[in-house]
Amino acid sequence: MIVSASYKTDIPAFYGSWFRNRLAAGYARVANPYGGKPFTVDLTPEGAEAFVFWTRNAEPFLDTLEALATRRRPFMVQVTVTGYPRSLERSVIDPERAVAQIREMARHFGPRSVVWRYDPVLITDVTPPEFHEESLRRLAAALSGSVDEVVLSFATIYRKTGANLGRLARESGIAWRDPEPEEKRALLARLAEIAADHGIRPTLCAQPELLSPGLEPAACIDRARLSDIAGGAIAGREKGNRPGCLCAESRDIGAYDSCPHGCLYCYAVGRPETAKRKLRAHDPEGDFLFPPGGGAAR
Predict the structure, then answer these.
(1) Distance between CA atoms of 45 and 1, rounded to whole angstroms?
(2) Less Cβ around it within 10 Å: N or C end of the chain?
(3) Torsional sign, CA 47, 106, 118, 201
(4) Are 161 and 267 in contact (CB under 8 A)?
(5) Which residues contact 235 (CB under 8 A, 6 or more apart)?
(6) 217: which strand partners?
(7) Is the peptide bond before 6 cis (omega within 30 degrees of 0)?
(8) 227-233 long-range contacts, Cβ below 8 Å, gap at least 24?
(9) CA-based nearest residue to 145, from 99, 189, 214
(10) What is the pTM of this model?
(11) Contact criterion met (CB below 8 Å) for 150 and 195
């Protein structure tokens, strides 16, 4: 089984000690976000064939990646870098620092081990379409030769996202909008062309209705890429998380409402203040990243 760590939160940036402890124990317990029974994820080499990590800041996790590589445990790292203004991304590291981390990981673990994410594309007063073209052009030039893929997607305005963006509009006067599909496709086509001009393959995450010339569907839990990294076939069937998702089957060990980066477009965090409180209460020695019902962590 492929283990995802995690599309619900940033484990490499904030919960690396917990992951290392769970890896040593050989398992992690996961609270079901929909109220069902908790479940156990096998993290032994026999149970976890490969890992997919998702992060905005890999630096605190580089030693863990080195340990995994030394033990010949395959992994890939999805790194989001957008360069958005602080009004939208309150606590992420500067894009230059993130780019340097990607370059270091590509040199050390190989360029197939790192995927750049420029997503979600969000249209606001401070990030109009031309902002995205310039930002992606600048980042693509810096990452050319270090990554072979950039994953794009337009922001989906989930309930949590809409609430956070509504607060932003009320408190800061920064308006946002959800463009019509035709405008989205046109911008994505321009972004895809910019990426391709820098030798980076542009893909689109789980939005088949927005595919445009030069874009391919993304498989973020990418069994083919992981098999390349492993030097042999990684088992697993395609089992997306939503319509249009081409990801391979995986088990995610994260938890919602626990990433304190403060990205106001995030689907996984209702209020950044809640995530900060949860981080302070986190027990790195616990079986769960966060136990069900907020009880004891073991």
Answers:
(1) 10
(2) C
(3) negative
(4) yes
(5) 1, 49
(6) 204
(7) yes
(8) 228/112, 229/50, 229/74, 229/75, 229/76, 229/110, 229/112, 229/113, 230/49, 230/50, 230/74
(9) 99
(10) 0.95
(11) yes
Please report, in tens digits, the pLDDT of each residue of the chain (298 residues total).
999 999 999 999 999 999 999 999 999 999 988 877 999 999 999 999 999 999 999 999 999 999 999 999 999 999 999 999 999 999 999 999 999 999 999 999 999 999 999 999 999 999 999 999 999 999 999 999 999 999 999 999 988 899 999 999 999 999 999 999 999 999 999 999 999 999 999 999 999 999 988 999 999 999 999 999 999 999 877 777 777 899 999 999 999 999 999 999 999 998 889 999 999 999 999 999 999 975 444 4
Distance CA 237, CA 1 (A): 10
In one-letter notation, the amino acid at residue 272 is P
Residue 31 neighbours by CB under 8 Å, 6+ apart: 38, 255, 288, 289, 290, 291, 292
Rg of the chain taking only CA atoms, in angstroms: 18
Count of positions (residues) in the chain: 298
Domain boundaries, the chain: 2-288
The token pair at 225 is 């890429």
